[in-house]
Amino acid sequence: MNLNPQILIIEDEKNIAMYIASILRGASYRSEFATSGICGLNLAASLCPDLILLDLGLPDIYGFEIIEKIKSSSDIPIIVISARTKESDKVKALDMGADDYITKPFGSGELLARIRACLRHHQKTTRSCTVYKHLNFTIDTDKRLVLLNEEPVHLTQIEYKLLCLLSENAGKVMTYSSIIEKIWGPFMDDNNQILRVNMANIRRKIEENPAQPVHVFTEIGVGYRMAENDAG
Description:
This protein is α/β, with parallel strands linked by helices. 42% of the residues lie in helices and 21% in strands. It has 2 domains: 6-126, Response regulator (Rossmann fold), CATH 3.40.50; 131-226, Winged helix-like DNA-binding domain superfamily/Winged helix DNA-binding domain (Arc Repressor Mutant, subunit A). The strands form 3 sheets. The protein has a 5-stranded parallel sheet with strand order 2-1-3-4-5, sandwiched between helices. It has a 4-stranded antiparallel sheet with strand order 6-7-8-9, with helices on one face. Strand 3, helix 3 (63-71) and strand 4 form a beta-alpha-beta unit. The chain is elongated.
């Protein structure tokens, strides 16, 4: 598996959102966009994007409030893209947790360079275990690869993030609620069904016999535990 980063655009002007999406598509990024703050928060919770491009001037929620809500529960990097040029707005956004601030109008080259820099910085600061290995199963977060018997495993973005989270806590039981909060955020209803569906899909892809797993175990009524990391 080798997924290109997914970027969420939260921008109320649809033509601008589609323009940004076309820039991202040309650079091989995957993208989704929302034209309201509520929709943006819901997509951020469900998609777990690698990066968010956020306009401050939204019709329903102040962009600053979105920064606060997302950063209170996740470390998803946020680049503000706004027509507001006041230094006070830039300082406020950055102090609230935004990772960068670009003013409109902007060039495609500048936007892509800022995205690359932000993703690089985020990967360096969040990577805790670059290689997880157990028996015939490997996760290499440096290369964004998941291998079974040395063959790539094709996963969705959510499945990949679930496996990375479990591998970072290998040997420890992670409760259903803690996994849901870390992957989908606090805006997701505390419903284990979406987690169970994703874990069942993961097992079909990485376990030779999903009924008798050797990599990811269910602690009934509590959560999930990944086998100890053989790579140390």
